[in-house]
UniProtKB/TrEMBL annotation:
Domain of life: Bacteria
Family annotation (Pfam families): DNA_photolyase (PF00875), FAD_binding_7 (PF03441)
Protein name (record): Deoxyribodipyrimidine photo-lyase
InterPro entries, per the entry: Crypto/Photolyase_FAD-like_sf, Crypto/Photolyase_N_sf, Cryptochr/Photolyase_FAD-bd, Cryptochrome/DNA_photolyase_1, DNA_photolyase_1_CS_C, DNA_photolyase_N, Rossmann-like_a/b/a_fold
Record site: Electron transfer via tryptophanyl radical: 311, 364, 387
Binding site for FAD: 225, 237-241, 276, 279-286, 377-379
Family, similarity comment: Belongs to the DNA photolyase family. Belongs to the DNA photolyase class-1 family.
Enzyme kind, highest EC tier: lyase
Cofactor note: Binds 1 FAD per subunit.
Length: 476
């Protein structure tokens, strides 16, 4: 029999659970559906979409070598998926459909409709856990609830991982050639015209590229990851996030290679390796949170009481932050990195998110949205988790009184101002001594028109936000 394999955020042929299972069951026809309007509603960035659609071209070639034909069809919204998939299955006399699970609330609803449609038509519809090591809902506390605290979640996950290894699956074998010709709608979307021009210089596509990135990171960087990962001037992290988000590489492949470099261990051994695996578990944690607490998928804070924080919507402040013109060099350099490359270093994501929510007291959802609109690795769970952590509205979030001082963060994590100078050319000539607070130097050298004065006074802003959170506590 023949089956449809519906590709979504799993754009690879190696270690792809649904593809592997479909191929084990019979002949396979692959399908990819475009939903530009829906993606835009989700604020998926032109960078991310362009990157993923380019990867789709690569995937098409790889599937071709396996004799798996690919059907590409453009729609508007998710609710058009079920009917089309069912009629396609019927048209090609398929016995059913296979796909890997996604966890946003709209994705879950879409997939439920698809399951129902196939069920009613008495056709198989099988979906798989593939993005994650463990299915959301299988890691719970003793009361049967989802964990809200990362360390507890991780402890439980590690218990499970010590019993069931999660090994990558092989690439399916070449199948017999199917004698069909499928339509392929154009992948050119106007929406992608706004992507950065050097997208593929920063983020070359391809499964092989992703595997090479992983291998290079494991060979050269992972051992020192713990010491170096917080310094944005050094490329000390894996930069695999766009590949993980698009599913060009799998979580099992990452974990397996890291464990192999650590004698099979994940919780002990080389600290750089355990530290990196710990980050992979944060990714896991936030996706489980998305399923356990769907309000976070609907623009709601995880902590309902923080709904009452009087966040501001000041558009001038927002614009200064977005354009990297706040007068805080580390914040500005970070924001310009985001706009120029579609990616931002993790330490900087925390700094700019904390700055937007605590120094500017702007609504965290404005920051979350702007990130999604630019990130090539934009992921609802991780992005929302990161933003709600910074805003102190989330699960296991930063306690509201622990507020980053952006200047101290800058001194600590970009001590030579190397990163700042890379992205803020106006500060190129500023000596190291002044780089974190350049205004006096600029003034003395009559360069004050070249770079903004700080848009906020950090200590005053700190008091303001502390008092807002305290009022909330008192009212409770
Ligand atoms: P590495 O340090 O090499 O880590 C390896 C992988 O682990 C990453 O590729 C990523 O998949 C995962 N990971 C690492 N840190 C985290 C984390 N804190 N939460 C969840 N997963 C993590 N990550 C995204 O993938 N997409 C996002 O949209 C996103 N938005 C964020 C927004 C904010 C405000 C913050 C604070 C963090 C956000 N992160 C997001 C998490 C993190 O910043 C990125 O995953 C990381 O910077 C990617 O770089 P890397 O691949 O070199 O990471």
């Amino acid at each position: 029999s023949t089956y449809l394999m519906w590709f979504r955020s799993d754009l690879r042929i190696s270690d792809n659970t649904a593809l592997y299972e479909a191929c084990n069951n019979g002949q396979v026809i692959a399908v990819y559906l475009l939903f530009p309007e829906q993606w835009q509603q989700h604020d998926d960035s032109p960078n991310k979409i362009k990157f993923q659609l380019a990867q789709l071209e690569d995937l098409k070639q790889a599937l071709n070598e396996l004799n798996i034909p690919l059907l590409i069809k453009k729609f508007h919204h998710f609710n058009e998926a079920a009917e089309f998939l069912l009629s396609t299955a019927k048209q090609y006399q398929c016995s059913g459909l296979f796909f890997n699970e996604e966890y946003g609330v709209n994705e879950i609803n879409r997939d439920r409709q698809v399951h129902q449609a196939f069920h009613q038509a008495q056709l198989t519809c099988q979906s798989f856990t593939d993005q994650l090591l463990f299915t959301p809902g299988t890691i719970k506390n003793q009361s049967g609830n989802f964990y809200k605290v990362f360390t507890q979640f991780k402890r439980k996950l590690y218990e499970k991982l010590s019993v069931v290894n999660r090994l990558p699956l092989p690439t399916p074998a070449k199948q017999k050639k199917l004698n069909i010709k499928l339509t392929q709608d154009s992948l050119a979307l106007d929406y992608c015209n706004k992507a950065i021009t050097k997208l593929f210089d920063h983020w070359p596509i391809g499964e092989t590229t992703a595997q090479q990135r992983l291998q290079l990171f494991i060979n050269d960087k992972i051992v020192a990851y713990q010491e170096n990962r917080d310094f944005p001037a050094q490329p000390a992290t894996s930069q695999l996030s766009p590949y993980l988000t698009a599913g060009i590489i799998s979580i099992r492949q990452c974990l397996h290679v890291a464990r192999s470099a650590n004698l099979g261990e994940f919780a002990s051994g080389k600290s750089g390796i355990t530290c990196w695996i710990n980050e992979l578990i944060w990714r896991e944690f936030y996706k489980h949170i998305l399923v356990g607490f769907p309000q976070v998928s609907k623009h709601q804070p995880f902590l309902a009481e923080t709904q009452l924080i009087p966040w501001s919507n000041d558009s001038d402040l927002l614009k200064a932050w977005q354009q990297g013109k706040t007068g805080f060099p580390i914040v500005d350099a970070a924001m310009r990195q985001l706009v120029a490359t579609g990616w931002m270093h993790n330490r900087l994501r925390m700094i700019v998110a904390m700055f937007l929510t605590k120094d500017l007291m702007l609504d965290w959802r404005l920051g979350e949205k702007f990130f999604m609109q630019h990130l090539v690795d934009g992921d609802l769970a991780a992005n929302n988790g990161g933003w709600q952590w910074s805003a102190s509205t989330g699960t296991d979030a930063a306690p509201y009184f622990r507020i980053f001082n952006p200047t101290n963060q800058s001194k600590k994590f970009d001590p030579q101002g190397q990163f700042i100078k890379q992205f803020v050319p106006e500060l190129q000539q500023v000596p190291i001594k002044y780089i974190h607070q350049p205004q006096d130097y600029l003034q003395q050298n009559q360069l004050h028109n070249t770079y903004p004065i700080p848009i906020v006074d950090h200590s005053q802003a700190r008091e303001r936000v502390l008092s807002a959170f305290k009022q909330l506590k008192e009212a409770k």
